[in-house]
Write a structure and sequence with these properties.
Helix 3 runs antiparallel to helix 4, helix 4 packs parallel to helix 6 and helix 8 runs parallel beside helix 9. This protein is rod-shaped. The two termini are 48 Å apart. The protein is 60% helix and 9% strand. The chain is of the alpha+beta class.
Length: 456
């Protein structure tokens, strides 16, 4: 029987922590985990943008270099003096630096725009480079930096156009011949003004469009991140809901087992203890009294362990062995077996037994206890040999041996068939090994090895 699934909170899974959890409904969700990976479509868009960014950077470098060299060539006279030649060589290298700066026009847009604008004012390299960097300033910075860089770019444009209009006729860039052999036509000051305004307006307009596109991409990325986070929260809520349902089912099963054990096994053990007490008091035979006393002590011990086990089941504890076992308890177990009449030969070597973990000592105790119980049931009256060697680092070796059952001594008590399986599971749970079976000479042999790491 499984409990009903806990109802989800109104409106779907919760989106975050909202007060303490009382144990009803879905458990609270953890904060969002690591940022989810991008969807394939988003990755495809990013790859496409990377390609266009590379092509755009290459084009910006080529255009800036070509325009700077054009301005430098048109500003150079036909006959160069040594000073003019040295200046041209200097401007040549500066033009290379201006073109190279276009690589960082996105990451350091303000610095690139201002630096190239200053160079455009003091050199004949022109104002194309700051015009290329200005859109990125408008797209990625505030209006103050945009105004500053826009003013610097405008100053570079004014200096470039003034320098072009002041050159000799054949070196003016903005000039044309309308017909073969006709006169040379030059751009008027109004034309320079209109051209500069158009160039500056185009750069600002491209920057505004890029700013809008960047904001739209950021909003889309944020929406995708929120959707992925909500999906992750929903999945986490579903997993925790299933985990809670499974835990409730397991706890209900534990409660059922605890009730059945209390109503059946514990009841029978109590009756056995009462009958043994009555036999101990009423019998005049000393041997019968000793046997009844041993039976009563065993019943009391079993009741104590049963009570501990039932409490652990009802409380939902993962560790059912609440008793602090130790290797020293083996002595009491072996003495109790001798009192019950078992012909027992025991050899126990333990080094530093107090440092052994509780889970390890509990397993050793249970393996020896179950082996003695099996020997008593299946080979009553035969001698049982128990050997235990325990040392940190070497581990714990357990050997229990009893001769074969005689034909005249049938099994007195039926077995459940789970003893050997339980011992094997206990040993393997600790990383050990277990083997039990009848040998060629008929002897039944139980061997177990448990690792014991020394404490540091």
């Amino acid at each position: 029987m499984h409990p009903p699934s806990p109802p989800p909170p109104p409106g779907g899974p919760p989106s975050g922590y909202g007060g303490g959890w009382t144990g009803h409904g879905a458990p609270p969700l953890p904060p969002p985990g690591p940022r989810p990976t991008a969807a394939p479509a988003a990755l495809h868009r990013r790859r496409g943008r990377t390609v266009w960014n590379v092509l755009g950077t290459l084009g910006a470098v080529v255009v800036a270099w070509f325009c700077a060299m054009t301005g430098l060539v048109m500003a150079s006279p036909e006959t160069l003096t040594d000073a003019q030649l040295a200046a041209d060589i200097l401007w040549f290298f500066v033009a290379g630096g201006v073109a190279t700066a276009m690589v960082w026009r996105q990451r350091h847009a303000v610095v690139v725009c201002l630096a190239t604008a200053v160079i455009g004012v003091v050199s004949p390299l022109g104002a194309v480079a700051p015009l290329i960097a200005l859109p990125w300033v408008v797209a990625r910075t505030d209006w103050r930096r945009s105004l500053l860089c826009g003013g610097a770019t405008a100053a570079a444009l004014v200096a470039t156009f003034w320098r072009d209009g002041a050159r000799t006729e054949e070196n003016v860039i903005f000039s044309a011949t309308l017909e073969d052999g006709g006169p040379m036509t030059y751009m008027s000051p109004l034309g320079y003004t209109i051209l500069g305004a158009l160039a500056l307006g185009l750069a600002v307009g491209v920057g505004l469009l890029r700013r809008r596109a960047t904001r739209a991409d950021a909003d889309a990325d944020a929406a995708r991140a929120v959707a992925a986070a909500e999906a992750g929260r929903a999945a986490t809520w579903q997993q925790q809901s299933q985990s809670l349902q499974s835990e409730l089912s397991r706890q209900e099963e534990r409660d059922l087992i605890a009730r059945e054990m209390h109503d059946t096994v514990a009841h029978q053990l109590s009756l056995m203890s009462l009958q043994a007490s009555a036999l101990e008091v009423s019998s005049d035979d000393g041997e019968i009294g000793d046997a009844a006393r041993s039976m009563r002590a065993s019943a009391h011990h079993a009741l104590e362990e049963m009570r501990t086990l039932i409490t652990s089941l009802r409380e939902g504890a993962d560790d059912y062995g609440a008793r602090p076992w130790s290797l020293a308890d083996l002595a009491d177990l072996l003495d109790s077996a001798r009192v019950r009449g078992i012909d027992l030969v025991a050899t126990v070597f333990v080094s530093d037994g107090d440092s052994a973990p509780a889970t390890l000592t509990r397993t050793v105790y249970r393996v020896v206890q179950e082996s003695l119980t099996n020997a008593t049931k299946h080979a009553p009256g035969s001698r049982v040999t128990v050997t235990v060697r325990a040392r940190p680092g070497d581990g714990i070796d357990i050997t229990v041996r009893n001769p074969p059952t005689s034909a005249s001594a049938p099994d007195a008590v039926p077995g459940s068939g789970s003893g050997i399986l339980g011992m094997r599971e206990r040993c393997e749970a600790l990383g050990g090994s277990f083997d039990a079976g009848r040998q060629d000479d008929g002897t039944f042999l139980v061997r177990a090895h448990l690792p014991w790491e020394p404490t540091r």
